[in-house]
Amino acid sequence: MKCLAVASEIYPLVKTGGLADVVGALPAALAGEDVVVRTLVPGYPAIIARLGEAREVARYDALLGVPATVLAAHVAGHDLLVLDSPALFAREGGIYGDAAGKDWPDNWRRFAALGKVAADLAAAGVEGWRSDIVHAHDWQGAMAMAYMRFGPAAHLPRVLTIHNLAFQGRFGAEIFGWLGLPPESWAMDGIEYYGGVGFLKAGLISADAITTVSPTYAEEIRRPDDGMGLDGLLDGRADRLHGILNGIDTDLWNPEADPMLPAPFAARRLGGRMASRRAVEQAFGLKRDRAPLFIVISRLTWQKGMDLLVEEMDGMVAMGAKLALLGSGDAELEAAFLEAADKHRGRVGAHIGYDEPLSHMMQAGGDAILIPSRFEPCGLTQLYGLRYGCVPVVARVGGLADTVIDANEAAVAAGVATGLHFAPDDAGALRRAMARAVALHGDRPGWITMQRNGMKADFSWGRSAARYAALFADLVKAAG
């Protein structure tokens, strides 16, 4: 089976979050299920610089008003189709916004163009290669579903994966004339959304199947509290909604062979974690001791519950714990964590930004990773934590609830706990969860059992890839 994937980022070429990790890992996992994936991505400078030998497979004199070419190349183990349009993608700053974090004003054109090209390639094929199915990711890829539905590729099955419903790609009605879609697409069951254009909404209404990145999130987004205005649409399409848990690349995230760590370790040989712990303490200016070391690797946003953690910093330090934080996001939250690091020198350290090797070392050296998200479609950092013996302390939402077994009395007695749950959106519940973690950390045999349980859990892509492949096969069969 041949699958054309459409996404705005892909690891290791360009990454802002977990989307890139999934898009980067899924093709190799699907190959084991006899699904061949080619991935269409934007031609950001970071990707163009890595192309090497590339073949031009399509050319546009005016793609939504700008010239563009499509290049085919094999890069970093990926079979890529790259939309090369300097007018859209050759710019300094982030892939979605400028250096100050403000969205690019032409994001509608940039990602509508990506969707239009995906639909064109699905209809015409590429060098004799024709996809059997198209798989788009998030709002940036979602317009591929609409362009296919209202174009010559309407016969091909379409799948859209929601990685985060909060980001929807909503734009004014004035862009409709530029999109090149037929008048009938401007409708409630088309791309119109509250008087404007909704990219994610267009994809959701046009896809033959919708997947989310965890089963619990698939249920949550059908409710008004978590549906972000799309709960009615999603509940009405519940028969096409599938929750498929993300996996992780267990070769890339492998504590026994991770080149980013100062020393390897395994579930039965945890002593090697100490070298990473000492390295984390040094990197963050933390006191060298055996106090419980919490880590945070996150976007610093309201969604991630980082304001709740700010409220509880003094209490955490009073418990005798330490914190190493790596992340960026809201300026006020960045400032609050830097202030906490200054106030609690040696007990709290904060690095604003992102550093892939440091994130690996933190997972390997931390005792517990804090994830107080208000909602979490899947989450990957808790999976990395489990893999590396860094016990997750998580809000009981979405994929966090699906992947972490709470250390309640029964689970501890049965020897199956892998982490701690607490109620979301509640600073007091976070404080009590941290206190539980500190107490459990004092029971060394019990804590080591939790670490080993997590490290032995299987969060590879095997089962999830099999579910994607089965879904794809059913859709292709139904399409005839």
From TrEMBL:
EC number, as in UniProt: 2.4.1.21
Domain of life: Bacteria
Catalytically driven reaction(s): [(1->4)-alpha-D-glucosyl](n) + ADP-alpha-D-glucose = [(1->4)-alpha-D-glucosyl](n+1) + ADP + H(+)
Tagged with keyword Glycosyltransferase: yes
Domain Starch synthase catalytic residue range list: 3-235
Gene3D superfamilies given in the database record: Glycogen Phosphorylase B
EC main group: transferase
Pfam families (alphabetical): Glyco_transf_5, Glycos_transf_1
One biological process term in Gene Ontology: glycogen biosynthetic process
Entry binding sites for ADP-alpha-D-glucose: K15
GO cellular component terms listed in the entry, alphabetical order: cytosol
Glycosyl transferase family domain segment(s): 286-439
Family note: Belongs to the glycosyltransferase 1 family. Bacterial/plant glycogen synthase subfamily.
Known role: Synthesizes alpha-1,4-glucan chains using ADP-glucose.
Protein name: Glycogen synthase
Organism from which the protein derives: Sphingobium fontiphilum
Lineage summary: Bacteria, Pseudomonadati, Pseudomonadota, Alphaproteobacteria, Sphingomonadales
Gene, per the UniProt record: glgA
